[in-house]
Each structure stands twice: as C-alpha cells, then as structure tokens.
Amino acid sequence: MQDIIGTSVFRSDAPDKVRGKAVYTADIMMEGTLHVSLARSSAAHAVLKGIRVPDLPDGCFVFTAKDLAQNFIPSIFSEQPVLAFDRIRYQGEAFAIVAAPTKEMADSIAASIEPELEVLETVDSIADALDEKKPALFDKGNVCSSFHSDKGDVDKGFAESFLVLEGDFETPVQIHGFIEPEAAVSYIDENGKLVLVSSTQNAFGDLYTAAVATGRPQSEIISMAATVGGAFGGKDGNTAQVYAAVVSHLTGKPARFIYSREENIRYGMKRHKSVTHAKVGFAKDGRILAAECHMLLDTGAYALLGPSVLNLGLEHFSGAYCIPNVRLGGKLLYTNHAPASAMRGFGAPQAAMAFENLLNRAAGKLGLDMIAIRKLNAIHKGQPGPMGGINEHEMGLEEALDRFAESDFYKEMTEQPEKDCGYGLAVGMMSSGLGKHIPDTCYVTIRRKDGGFAVRTSLIDIGQGSRTALTQIAAKALDVPFGAIDMQMGSTVDNLDSGSTAASRSTFICGNAIIEAAKKIREGADEARASCAFPEASGQAIHTYFAFIVQGAKVKVDPVTGKTDVLWIHCVTDTGRVINPSMLDGQVFGGVAMSLGMTLSEEIRYRNGRSLENGLGNYILPTALDVPKLTNEFIEKPEESGPYGAKGMAELPTVAVAPAITTAVCSLYEDLEINTVPIDRTAILGSRRRT
Amino acid sequence: MKNINCIVNGEKVSRNIPDDMSLLTFLREELGLTGTKQGCGSGDCGACTVIVDGKSVDSCIYPAVLADGRDILTIEGLEKNGELDRIQKAFVEHAAVQCGFCTPGMIMSAYALLQDNPNPTEDEVRRAISGNICRCTGYQQIVDAVLSLNM
C-alpha cells in the first residue's frame, strides 16, 4: 500500500466547500436573533467623559462598560477593554454594544449614541510615538515593550569587516485580507449554557474572554469554530466573539455579529508597520562577521500579541545565517491606530526585507552570486543562533539553496535572462511553535467507533488544511485508510485547551499528539488521550524549530509608469518531511501572493488616526492578474522529532517575497536601492535603467 | 414591497420582497441558499458571484427586483443527482480549495467563462476570475483546475 504520508490526498473538506454546503458562521441563522452593532468612536484619541443613549424602541438594547462583569480582553498585557469607558485610543474603538431585531436598526441606533469626548492630540506614527512632546496613550508611556540581545563583539566584528552596509527599511500596515469577515453567533442552549460559534483560531481563548466579560463560570460556556473562511493570524484573539456573547448572556436571545468589510479594514487586526535600521559587516570573501538590527513596530492602541511579534522579528533578522556577532534591539510602540497583532510571518517578513536586501547588495559589491553568498553563511544544525542558543534540530537551508541553483528559474536568471526582465532571490526562515515561556501543548483524544476512529482536538482548520494533514497522520498512525478517520476539530466540548491555531504549530504538535494517542489505541485501548508539548529552545533562543524557503522573483518594470509586474515566483521549501505535496504548494502559493500584495499594492495609510482605506476598492488585494505563475519545489530533510519527520510551514512563504522582488526590480537599474514597500513607482522612475 | 417571479436553480420561485433587497440577501435569507457568500457587500471581492441569464453578476450589488423574470444559477444548482459538476470536481482534484469562502463565487465565474469559451487560454482564465479575490491560494491551483477542463 502506498504510504499516505507524502501523498496528495484530496482535502476532506473540499467537496462540501465546492457544493456551497460548508457552514460558515454567517450561514447560521436562528429565529429571534438579535443583530449586533458597535457604537464606535469617530475620534482616534480622546477622553471619554460620558455616553448619551437615546430612547430605544422595544426589543432593542444598548450595553456599555458598566454592564460587563470585567472589562478586559485577556492577552499578553490584557490592557485592552472590551468597551472603552474612560479613554478612546483608536478611531473606531467601541464604547457600546447595540442589539436589535434587524442589522439596519442596530446600525442606526449605534450611530445615534453620542459619546462626550474631549479630543486629544493623535499619536499618528512611529515618529510620533517616540516624540516625548506627544501625549502618552498609557501611564507607562508609548513604549509598549522592548527587546535587546547581544552576542559576541559586534563593534569588533564591524571594525574587522571589509564591507559594511546599512540601511533604513520600512514595511506597511497590512490587513490579513481573509474573504470571510470576522463573525460570531451565540445563543443560550437548552441546558442554559452560552454557546459561542465563531470564525476563530482559538475556541478556548474565546471561551475565556466571554467568561471574563459576562462573569459566567467557564463551565457554563461552550465555544466552537464554524468553518473558518481564512484567518492568517487576524482571528487569533477577540474580534466579534465577545460582543455576541455579552448580548446573549444579558438578553437570553441568540445574537449575531458579522463585521462589515469597512470594519474589517479599518478596525480588524493588522500586520505591524516596521521601521528597521539594519547593518551588516562582511569579510572580503563574503563571510558575515557582524549584524545589527534595530526594529521599531507600530502596534497601534493595544499590545495584543505585539511583544511576541517584535521578539520573533528580531530573532529572525539574521537567523538563517551563522554569524559570530549579532546585536538585536527594538521597540514596540503604541499609537492611535487600530491594534496590530499576529499576521502570517509574525515579524519575520519585516526583518527579511532589511537583511536580505543588504545581503544581495553585498553579493553585488563583492562579486558573489546570490546563492554563493548564502551558502557561505547558511546556518546548520548544531550551530548557535543569533542569540546564542544552539540549533538542535534539522535545518535544510543549504540543501534548499542547492536545489534552487538547479532550478529552471535559476538557470534562466543566470544563463538566459529574458530581455528587459529583472531577477532576484531571497531566503526566508520561519519558526514554528509559540516560543519560550508560553504554554504550548496539544491534547488529542482518539476513540474507536463503528468502522474507524474519531480523533478530537480543540485546534482548528482555519482554511490551511490541517484537518486533512492531521487525518493523514492519524490514518498512518492507526494503520487504517484515510476514510476511516473522523477528524473532529475546533470545539471546547470534551476537549482540553490546545491553545491557538497559530505559529505554524498544528501539524507538528497535534501530529505528534495523534501518534502518541494512536500507540495506546494500538495497544488495545478503546479510547486514549495523549498530549505533546513543544520542546523549549536552548540558551537565549526563543524558538526551537525552523523551516526555510528560497524565493526567486522575475519582474518587468514599465519604463513609462514605473509599475512593477511580477512574472514568476519560484520557491524551494525545506519543511522536513512533506505530508501532502499539493497542499504544501497551496500554502506556499497563498503565502507568496499575500506578500506580493505587501510589496506592490497593499497598505493602510493613517491620517490623524483614520485610515484612508475603507474597502476592497481602495485597499488593493492581488487578483489572478496580479499574481503570476507560481512554482514550488521542496527538499526533504526529515526532522526526527516531528510527526513522520514534518516541520511546520504555514507562515514560511510570506517571509522573503518582498526582498526577492525589490532585488529583481533594482537589478534593472544602475543605482536604485529600494528600502520601502509597497514599492513607490515614482521612486523607480528617477533612476537610470541599465542598458 | 414588490412581487418577483424567477427561476432559481431550475425551480420557479415567487416572493414578495422589499424594493431595496439585494439578490444576495434574497438568495441567502429568503431562499436559504447560503452557498453564495458575502465578502464585501460592495461588488469588489466576487464571493457572491451567481449567474443571471447566463452572465456572472455580483449578487451583493444586484437588486433582487431586477431578477424578476430571469433565470438564476447558484453554486447549489451545479450538482446533478448528487454528482459534482466537472468544475467542482476539478477544484477538488487540483487543490484549488483552501478556506473555501471564495470558492462558490470563483466556480460560478469559471462556469460563466466556460459557457462562452470552452477552451480558454491561461490569460483568459485569469481575466475571467479577476473579479474574484482569493487570499488563500495565490490562484495557481485555481487556474490549473479551470485549464484542466479544456476540451
């Protein structure tokens, strides 16, 4: 029998999805539902002195902070209120929940609730946040968190360098762009329990948040994911969930809250804007002797997962290379912008934009090709990472570079470049797992049932296909056909908390837990539970496992308009053993398209705290005409501790697209250096084209 | 309120509806056909694409009253006797589905293309689905799925 691991099994959820039968949150419609809207602040920064609620029609409700049992959303710092009560910190921050029999009524009431505001000066940029003359969002000031790490003797490393390059790099505020907007429905079931069904990455997280806000015991709440229409980090934490839950709790009625696309774009979570100063020192032969990075991130009005994003971004800055002297520092800053939090790549794309561009410039100046300079410096198992901890697990960067060098893409790039086309490549590295000091355990229960096995976990298939990959792992572990596995995911019922579906962790950690539980079943148990915890990184390192990708871009630039067209992106991935090759390709292609958007067209621009973008007509997501031919190959270097040798990879393909494209564009010009994305086409037009 | 009579997925439908109801709301809330999705409500993302008299339209900005007397096909109407349509099958087999939220609209745009042009080029496929945004797939496997149906 063919090994199911490594086979492109069709996704088990695809038939229902192509039929239109898969049930997403907004597809759940219940009799007597109250539609939820939020009264949101028009000012970005203000003292909130009071709220005037108009007379309400029968059957309509308005709830404010005083109706909540506790008023915070659990997170790293838990400083974000469910409802603003004394201060407004971003435009659109909610200060009241409205519930009404129709959405139109709820919207209309929400618009008529008047906050008494004393407007404050807006902290509207990273520069504003660093300016001590600007108001502080919190008593502690506008520095939310900071990070510092020093390995070796960086100053000596630069002094001994033959070539030192530095630059200031910027990446934009980006939205996740999932096509299903944030959504939650809730109701009280026949046992009096509050049931919360939502588009979410973390059913237990939603349960805890709902318990805090409503005062209900956790045992009186059930939380589960419906089919999730994309998440990418933007549904990791509270979006719509707590507001629906509060309404059902206080009224006893079903509640429904679906974000409009404008709410999603203006007030949904974001990728952090970054301003990064980077400096890298090279020996004459191309060896990197020292690297330094100072990264500033705009986390908006509340920290959410920002502190971890900063730390991960810095850890990944030079992490793909073995460098003796590395200094990393940065600040996460509060501004009056909608909160940024997790987004696919989690700081790594921002860091790669800086490092990989400098590395390619150095290759040019030292007369090395872009593969050679990377092979010379590539990190290997057993070598120390940028913060000193030893990398104890498989790292396939060198093999991925070798494979890339054999690719049709690289041959075209180096031997037969197409006329008027530019080529570039870059390397991305991405950790899996939540990181040091964060509980990172997955629980799985397997139960025999007629003709097969039910496999249960609270982790969620958010669209990435974990249901199918985990079913393949379970089928292998139990030695049964794929169809004998009933994979049950995404509910708090009869499950222990396996944490968020995030950090490229599901395949690895849940796969290992499945294999452990399957052992007990194969020893004769009818039902077995097992857990797997991520091993902690050694030394100062934050993460334990890393996957790698080499990404090459071929571009054309219109000489009249300066518009960049990307013609081809080729990738080689190293993610240990591949569970499902077609699905791996799909993850790679989707991640590539997302970062192509960041490089060419996607950006939220704030003016006095208000975004200029409010819809998909002016926030430009790439279409099938913007995304070119995408190809992917993989090398397989199995990770011994992974499930059948696999490592996590969902975020990886977002990491190095921007520097691959900017390098390709710059290769067409004599003196052009692009340090900012999305690319400003007018900056290109001022440059002299190579002939 | 207005009375409309139309054909939806081959069946006659008659309803009294508010003048300002969108075709999307009519399909989802009046008829319970929730396979058609709302992604933006402004005709920008294509998740709500359905076929009206053979042409693909964004049902979120198409007034339901205009559907009077017309023939409407939604994702639920493609399957015949429990058999997936060939486009649906191709999407499954080419890994063209991830989160699936854009999928019904994407398939309906592909359906409209293939009705008019049974042997499209890659560029024609990309153009035909360029009003349908997908954030998961990078489009490659969707394009592959549609091209696989060339006669």
Write up what this structure looks like.
The complex is a heterodimer of chains A (691) and B (151). With 691 residues, chain A is α+β, with helices and mostly antiparallel strands. Chain A is built from 17 helices and 27 strands. Chain A has three domains: 25-120 and 177-267, Aldehyde oxidase/xanthine dehydrogenase, a/b hammerhead (Aldehyde Oxidoreductase, domain 3), CATH 3.90.1170; 170-174 and 269-435 and 540-685, Aldehyde oxidase/xanthine dehydrogenase, molybdopterin binding domain (Aldehyde Oxidoreductase, domain 4), CATH 3.30.365; 441-533, 2-Layer Sandwich (Aldehyde Oxidoreductase, domain 4). In chain A, 26% of the residues lie in helices and 26% in strands. A seven-stranded mixed sheet of chain A has the order 3-5-1-13-10-11-12, sandwiched between helices. In chain A, strands 7-17-16-15-8 form a five-stranded mixed sheet. In chain A, helix 9 (348-366) packs across helix 10 (370-377). Chain A is globular and about 75 Å long. Chain B folds into two domains: 2-77, Roll (Ubiquitin-like (UB roll)), CATH 3.10.20; 86-147, DNA polymerase, domain 1, CATH 1.10.150. Chain B has a five-stranded mixed sheet with strand order 2-1-5-3-4, with helices on both faces. Chain B is globular. The model of chain B has no long low-confidence stretch (mean pLDDT 98). Chains A and B meet through helix 1 and helix 15 of A and helix 2, helix 3, helix 4 and helix 5 of B.
Give the CA-based shape of chain B. globular
CATH superfamily of the largest domain in chain B: Beta-grasp domain
Number of strands of chain A: 27
**What is the number of helices of chain B?**
5
Number of helices of chain A: 17
Major β-sheet strand ordering of chain A: 3-5-1-13-10-11-12
Uncertain parts of chain A: none
Largest pleated sheet of chain A: 7 strands, mixed
Strand content of chain A: 25-35%
Q: Greatest interface and its residue counts?
A: A-B, 57 and 55 residues
Main sheet of chain B: which strands, in order across? 2-1-5-3-4
What class, by secondary structure content of chain A?
A: alpha+beta
In whole angstroms, the N-to-C terminal distance of chain A is 57 Å
Category from helices, strands and their pairing of chain B: alpha+beta
DSSP, total strands of chain B: 5
SSE string of chain B: EEHEEEHHHH
Query: CATH topology of the largest domain in chain B, what is it called?
Result: Ubiquitin-like (UB roll)
Main beta sheet of chain B, described? 5 strands, mixed
